[in-house]
Prior knowledge:
Helix content of chain B: 25-40%
Number of strands of chain B: 16
Radius of gyration of chain B: 23 Å
Strand order of the largest sheet of chain B: 6-7-8-3-9-10
Number of domains of chain B: 2
Shape of chain A: elongated
Order of helices and strands of chain B: EEEHEEHEHHHEHEHEEHEHEEHEHEE
Largest sheet of chain A: none
Radius of gyration of chain A: 20 Å
Order of helices and strands of chain A: HHHHHHHHHHHH
Helix content of chain A: over 70%
Strand content of chain B: 25-35%
Shape of chain B: elongated
Number of helices of chain A: 12
Number of strands of chain A: 0
CATH architecture of the largest domain in chain B: 3-Layer(aba) Sandwich
CATH topology of the largest domain in chain B: Rossmann fold
Oligomer: heterodimer
Largest interface: A-B, 28 and 30 residues
CATH class of the largest domain in chain B: Alpha Beta
Amino acid sequence: MNAAALELVALPVRALRRGMVWWSIGLASMIALTMAFWPAFKGSRVIQQGLDMVPPALVQAFGLQDFLSPEGYLRGNLYAILVPLLLVLAAVSATSSQTAGEEAAGRLELYLAQPVDRRWLFLGRGIAVVVAVSVISMAVLVAQVVSDSIVDVHVDIGRLASTVVLSGLLALLHAAIGFAIAGFRARPSLVLATGTVIAIAGYLIAALFPLSDVLAPWRHLSPWDWALGGDPLLHAAEPWRYAALIIPAAGLAVLGVGAFGRRDVAAA
Amino acid sequence: MTSRVQPETGGDTVVRVEHLVKRYGTVEAVRGIDFEVLRGEVFGFLGPNGAGKSTTIRCLMGLLRPTAGRVTAFGLDTWTHGVAARRRIAYLPGELRLPDRLTTLELVATVGRLRGTFDPRRRDGLADRLQLDVRRPLRDLSSGNRRKVALLLAFLADADLLVLDEPTNGLDPLIQHEFLALVREARAAGTTVFLSSHVLSEVQRAADRVAVLQVGRVIAVGTVAELRGRARQRIEAWFDASPPAAELLALTGVVDATVDGRRFAATLVGPIQPLVDLLARHPVASMLVEDPDLDDAFMDLYAAHSVDAGTGAARERP
């Protein structure tokens, strides 16, 4: 990779630096705070009695099964919804700002007027989002491991890492949807809205469809099911789950880069 | 858009615009224009806002894909071989949007890495001439100072072609003067300059040739002198005897003529030579010819081309 190609990645990474720090601090704080309540929840009969009154299907839908085990507590409070959804929001907003947002603001023109291939410039922005999600996911993992050790929770680190990686890949898949849209149109709000709405719809499909016998088989349409449907905190995730997130994300990235290379660059 | 194409080195044409059309949906911003920019010249690109200047320039920079026709720079199609073409082009955009968090120093280094090189001594020299503090974040700079940053980037690139879109917007007169000096120096060093502006005095002082755009069409191309030659001139002549009124009034291009005693006054449209020839055959005591400027030529050109409101097509006035 030459200096110009590196610069095309370094530029958006520098722009995302502050966001990466704040998202990392936010997620790490949320994890630390959640884990601080573990000693109070551990073995609580009152909570167990409460959960026993909830229909099993609903318990399953909201990831509350085995809630008083360490893995169940992590799943129910953090990794069933909150951490993956926040990672999705971080990834989609970073994509929106660094692609369609920068283009609509006219800030790509100065760089595109240099002797650089515009497809490389756009791809560089996608790589920067991958870097940002990796950094934030790493912060999540470190915060979880440190918090676990402080409150004496024993969760398999390999399974924890697998859960965080799958959550990060889920975020990148939604970022890739936004990236592909930005390849066609310089509309930051459209990128942000589409990525977020698809993420929420995907969660609802994965969580609620199993409640209906008719809809249950369709839950496999949701990327949330591909990523977290196997309960990776308890069971080693199958390799296809990674592939099911990475391959479409890569395909969408190629689509976005190709589209951006063929169209007019928006004027400020 | 790979960069493996060798730029053309021979020939006197640096930029060639051929039958260029650019449509945005149903709006036709550029309506089939042709012109050439020659090696080593300062080429003025004139027209009011909305005439299609920036659209043409953005096609030249490979930012827009022509709907029809093509633009070449150094013999390279700027859409299909944009990277190779832009290696020899430096560009100052009309709508200037800079990354706010960077300082000028950081931005210059970034652009330098994208272009492959830059000369720090030349950067400092240009910053001094433009009176620019390169250590301040760009978000703290006024619009005039941001324009100076863009000028610095354009002149630092050591390119064979400078494309400057409204380069002096927001600059104070002192820096405008420095800008014109930089343009002259670049031209003397063999750089071709494509200068888009609606500031006529600036183009008049800097340009060798000019193209005038109106609603997406080129309505005139020529040297500044040729365009000035088309402008209306106020003429007055005092004769030693009675003026040859009939001959004077019959001259092509003489309008609003009055003969008052020994004085003849008129407005001349077009070349002055026939009038000079006629006057040479008669005893003229003194005469006054107002020097036309590009402003007048420009206004005359626009007045001569009425615009069809329905189609936006420019029509020559009969």
